[in-house]
Specification:
80 residues; mainly alpha
């Protein structure tokens, strides 16, 4: 999973869009709670705070891969 997310370029508008797409691609590989944890871990391993990683995940689910919104919501409820 890190191979996808770790390859994201530095922050700018295009990079943000690419990061959102890569996040969704990672969820495509593992569309379950374990996959969500893996995405968040990869984002945090690359310098994002837990809060920032959660924002990226939520934004990806809303803008790029809405098919994962329910999964992301279930995860958020489970860890709250």
């Amino acid at each position: 999973m890190c191979a996808l997310i770790c390859s994201a370029p530095a922050a700018n508008a295009d990079a943000e869009g690419e990061l959102l797409v890569l996040t969704c691609m990672a969820l495509d590989e593992s569309p379950n709670m374990t996959g969500v944890v893996g995405v968040l871990d990869s984002l945090m391993d690359n310098g994002l705070s837990a809060y920032q990683a959660a924002l990226v995940l939520g934004k990806a689910g809303k803008q790029v891969c809405p098919e994962y919104q329910a999964l992301i919501r279930r995860f958020a409820i489970a860890v709250a």
